[in-house]
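Reopening this ticket.

The earlier resolution said the output was attached, but the attachment link was broken on my side. Pasting everything inline this time so it's all in one place.
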Amino acid sequence: MLYEKGAVELPSFEGDASTQRCKPERFVVTRDRLVRHVSLRQGGEAKSELRLQSKRSLGTDLAGEYDLAWLTSKTAPPEVSSSRGSLRVADLFSGCGGLSVGLREACRALNVSAEFAFASDFNDAALDVYCKNFRPHLSASGPLEQVVDGKVGARRTKSELDLMSKVGRLDFVIAGPPCQGHSDLNNHTRREDPKNQLVIRVARFVELFRPQHILIENVQGIRHDKLGSLGRAMEVLARLGYRMEDRVVSADRLGTPQARKRFFLLASLSEVQGLDLVESEIEQPRSLGWAINDLLDNELDTAFDSSAVHSAVNRKRIDYLFDHQLFELPNSERPPCHRDREHSYTGVYGRMRWDRPGPTITTGFGSAGQGRFVHPLHRRTLTPHEAARVQFFPDFFDFGDRGRRQYQELIGNAVPSKLAYAIVLNQLR
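Inline output:
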C-alpha cells in the first residue's frame, strides 16, 4: 500500500596535508568546531561543521575525528545552506536506511539539500524506522513489484502511472535489493533464488523515472547469479543511455570499522566518477575499538544497550575464550557438527579483536554461534548499539523502542552508511 506523508575551545590549525586530508576532503579545527571542506570539481569548496562535544585532545587524523564526532553525536548535525540546490531521492528496498544515511551526509557535506521523495520496503518495521528518520513524501509497504508491475520496455501500467504522478521528478535512485539469494552464506538457493531478479524491478523503476544517477548495492555474489539478472538490468540501463561502472568495495578501506566487501553499480546520464577514489582514501583501517570505545561501560537495562542472554553452553564457550586468552574456539569446545568433521566456520564462536576492524555484521550478531561476535574485552556478544556503530549508524539515528531481535534484523540487514557517503560525495562534488 502507498502512504502519503504527513565543547572545548581549540586553536585553529590545518596541520600537515598528509595527515589532515582524506581526498576529496580537508579538515580544520576552528575553536570548538571541526570543519569539513570538500573540493568541488567546478572549483571552490563546500563547507560543513560539527561542534566538538568533549575536552579530549584530538589526534592528527582529523578525518577520523570528524567521523567519530558525527557517529557519537546524540543530535543531528546542523543543516547547511542548500546553496548548491537540492537532490530528490528514491530509496528502493530501503531497509531502515543505511544507504540514505550516507547519501544525506554526503549532501550535507556538499551544501546540497536532500529531499526524500519515495521509499519502498517489504519489511514494515524497517520502513517505519526509515520514515521516522527521513520523512519521505511517499512510502510503499510491501513488495516493490506491486507498484512497479510493468515489464521492462512495456507501456506504463495504471499502478506505475499513479506512482509517477505522486512521486514526481527524481535525481538519484539508490537501491539494495535483497541479497540473501546471492550470499555465500546461503547454501540452498544461492545464485538461483527468484528474488535475485528484483534488480530487474530497479531497472524498470529507472525506466519510468529516468533519474540522473543510480546506485545499486549488493553482495559480491550478484556477479555470478545464474539467472543473469544483473547483466539484464545493466543492458536495460545501457539502452536508456546510462554510463556505468561497477566494483566490489572493501568497507574498511573507506573508513568503516568493519572488514566486509560489497558490490556497487553506479550509473549516470553524465560521467561516472563516484568510484574513482574507492579503496584509496584510508591508509590505516579503523578498528572496532575506534568505533565503540566510549560504549565499554555503557551497558544499560535496555534492549539497545545490553547484550543477548546466552545459553549455558555458549556462556561456557565464551568463558573458555577468555580463560585461555584465545580468539578462536578450539574444535574440542565446539558442537559435534564442528568437532567431528572438517569445517570452514573458524570464525563462529570467535572473539573479535579490539585493534582490528570488526567482522561483517549480520542479523546474528547477538549469538556467539552465528559468527565472530564475542566482544574482545567483555564476556558477551555485541549490543545493538555497538553493532549500529560498526555499521556506521550515528547515535542520533532513531531506531525506536524495539525488542532485541528486531534491532538485530534492522541493523544486520543494513548497509554501512560510510560506503554510500564516499561514493555519492565523489559522484556529486
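Reporter confirms the inline version is readable. The radius of gyration is 22 Å. Residues 98-109 form the longest helix (12 residues).
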